[in-house]
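Hey,

The postdoc asked me to send both predictions to you directly instead of through the lab channel. I've kept everything plain text so nothing gets mangled by the mail client. Protein one:
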Amino acid sequence: MTQPVRVRPLEPGDVDACRRLLARLPDWFGIEETNREYIAGLDHRPSAVALAENDAVGGFVSIEQHGPGSAEIHVVAVDPDRHRRGAGTALVAWTEQWCRNEGVRWLHVKTRGPSTPDAGYERTRLFYLARGFEPLFETLELWGPQDAALILVKRID
């Protein structure tokens, strides 16, 4: 039986593990400049880590608050060895609780849209849909015509 995933707020000592994790996910996080921005944001954005059985960082999430009532999952990454084992779900649940605590009513996330098909991102979209997110709109202007951006939203009650 799989043990529940433990999630806790990110600590400064977790940052290197988060950096290494992004490097293990080149199909999702293959732009070095963007990865540096994600890691730099960990020092000032609300963030959490999912811990594997050995207390190693098995995933992380970082939140960007856009205003008093809305926030974005700025980045979420899960070790490929931890996919489909609850880490992503636990990180989204932590994010939703953070939103409730802060009075945030709307949570959104950007991912690659279906207009530029990709099997990996299809799984990502299904993941968010299964957690109650709904498509708001898709655009070819944000990331360019080769990478449609889909914005998904969820009301936090």
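Protein two:
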Amino acid sequence: MKQRYFIYFSYNGARYCGWQMQPNGISVQEVMQKAISTILRTNIEMTAAGRTDAGVHARCMVAHVDLEHELPAGIDFVSKLNSLLPNDIAVEKTVEVRPDAHARFDAFSRRYEYHVVLNKNVFSHEFAMRIFHPLDFERMNRAAELLYQYTDFTSFSKLHTDVKTNNCKITYARWTQDNDKWIFTIEADRFLRNMVRAIVGTLLEVGRGKMTPDEFRQVIEARNRCDAGTSVPAKGLFLVNVEYPEDVFTGQRGSSEF
């Protein structure tokens, strides 16, 4: 009988073309599937909670995988998998789930962070966007609060995608300071391609005084990507959490092996 598991893992996306396999570059999915297939000696396919773009990082990504056979007794799957994976991908745990549980469609919440720094920092330049102009973060937060009032975010979506709807329910969106870094945290039931980076780019226009919060509202209502700001670089974006209903899990949530 086929058994399904959720695999929780993180990755530095700098050298990958994103999560999903692509014909023109190496993806996180390709590397992980190869490692798991090597251990299990059979071809394995993974389905993730979402597809991060090239250069985007994940502190917590979830993917499901199906097994036809049990692993040999005594094997520590997580440790063995981490030994095969490169240093920029790390598996945290695996959890047994219902056979019909789906890493993408059963997720009811996803949380992203975008990091910016205002000063030169040799320890964060690879994982944050440096800003060279003063920003009014209070004004940016007033604009971000307007996101709660809308569900259609066509203005912040990558053009010509194959999604059926551009509707999302945003439940949290705010800038907070962490020492010399500012972090924009946003949580929603789903996200469109390029959505977070486009929202951040537009909020930066507000912070620089080039757009008012009311004009930010007009951008949302226009449902036109051309009205929004430029997308910020991928290196500052992190997927940090994915949430599921408790009833999808059949094993212990803290399990570290199959």
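Summary for protein two, as requested: The CA atoms of residues 37 and 43 lie 5 Å apart.

Thanks,
C.
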